[in-house]
Amino acid sequence: MIIKICGLTNFDDALAAAELGADYLGFNFYPKSQRCIAESDCGKIVAALRIGFPDLSYTGVFVNHPVADITRIVKRCALDTAQLSGDEPPGALAALGAEKIRAVKAIRAGTEAHTPLEFAAFTTGKPALLLDATAPHLYGGTGHTADWDWAASVASRYPVCLAGGLTPENVGSAIRKVKPWGVDTASGIESFAGKKDRDKMAAFIAAARRAGREIHITIEPAQAGDAAEILALQKLAYRSEAERYRDFTISPLTQTLAQIESEFGRKLFLRAKTEGRIVGSVRAELRDGSCNIGRLIVHPEWQNLGTGSRLLREIETRFPQANRFELFTGERSECNLHIYQKSGYRIFKREPMNERVTLIYLEKAAESL
C-alpha cells in the first residue's frame, strides 16, 4: 500500500513523514490553501530529503495553474509528479506530458465534466487517478470523506490513490472497502492546518500498511505440491506453542512430509497466499456429518490481520453438508481460544494429553453460520 502524506509546509514534518515510512510527500501550491508552501521552501526540503531518502517520491499539488507555471515549479523544486486538483481538462495532462512532466488528475464523484477514462488515458504509471471528496468550490484538504462506493467502482478499473478525510481511525476500513493502489492524507494527521502530528502520522501509516497487507492475501484451496511449504510454515507457527507448553514433541513439530502429503488425499487444505508465498493454512475433513477442522496456522509476521478468522470462515463454507464443526486447541492458547469463541465456537470437552497439556475441544452448529 502506497502512502502519501500531503500538505507539508515545513522541513520537520516532511522529515518525520519520511522517517515514519511514507512513500510520497505532497506540497501544495494553491495560494488559497492553508497549507500553501513557497517554491523556495519546497525546493530546499526536497533537496535535503533526497540525500537521506532517495526512494521517496515528491508531488506538487496544483489548482487551475497554467501549464507553464506547473512546469516551472516542478522543475525548480525537483518534484516527481504534478497533481492537478482543480477543474483542469484532460488536455492539461497531455500538455504536461509534452513537457516531460508526469501528472495525475484528482477527481470527485459527480463533479467532473470528463470521465475517469479521459483523464487516465493521459497518465503513465501509477496512480492513474486520485479520488477525493466532493466539496463545492473547494479543492482538497477539506477533511470531508470521499464516496467510498464510487471510489471502489473506479478502483476496480484503475490504480487509484484514495484521498478525502482519511484518518488513522478510518483508513483501514477505506482500504478494505475501496482496495486502492495508495492512500493520501493531509488534514487527518494534523494538530492544526499546516502542522502535522507525528503520532497521528505514525498511526496512519501503521494502519494503512496493515490493511494493505490484509487485502492482498488470497485464500484458496492448496495443492499437494504445497505440502512442503505448509509443513515448514506449520513448524514455524507451532514453535511458540511448544515453548508455551515446554513440549517440543507435539505432533505439528514432528510431522513428516510424507505424513502431511498423505493428508491431502482425505482432507481439504486451504492456503492464504500473498506476494508468492503461503502465509497461512487450515485443513478439514468430514466425519459422520461433523467437519473436523485442524492446524489453523498463520505466519508470525502476518498475524493480527484477520487472516486466521478468514481461513476459519472459508473452510466452514467449503463443507455445506456438515451439521456441526469441531476443533481443538491447548488450554493455555488464549489467542486461539479467543478467535474460536469470537467465531461462535463453544467449549464442550477438556481432555488431558499429558501432564503439561490439556486440550480444549470446541464446537459450533452448522445453522449458526
What does this structure look like?
This protein is an alpha/beta fold. The chain has two domains: 2-215, TIM Barrel (Alpha-Beta Barrel), CATH 3.20.20; 218-368, Gcn5-related N-acetyltransferase (GNAT) (Aminopeptidase). It is 36% helix and 25% strand. It is built from 14 helices and 17 strands. The strands form three sheets. An eight-stranded parallel β-barrel has the order 1-2-3-4-5-6-7-8, surrounded by six helices. A seven-stranded mixed β-sheet has the order 11-12-13-14-15-17-16. A hairpin with a 5-residue loop joins strand 16 and strand 17. The two termini are 32 Å apart.
What are the SSEs and their pairings?
Layout: E1 2-5, H1 11-20, E2 24-28, H2 39-52, E3 57-62, H3 67-77, E4 81-84, H4 90-98, E5 103-108, H5 116-120, E6 129-132, H6 148-155, E7 160-162, H7 171-178, E8 182-185, E9 190-192, E10 195-196, H8 198-215, E11 218-221, H9 227-237, H10 239-245, H11 251-254, H12 257-263, E12 268-274, E13 277-287, E14 290-298, H13 307-317, E15 324-330, H14 334-342, E16 346-352, E17 358-365
Parallel strand pairs: 1-2, 1-8, 2-3, 3-4, 4-5, 5-6, 6-7, 7-8, 14-15
Antiparallel strand pairs: 9-10, 11-12, 12-13, 13-14, 15-17, 16-17
Helix pairs in contact: 1-2, 1-8, 7-8
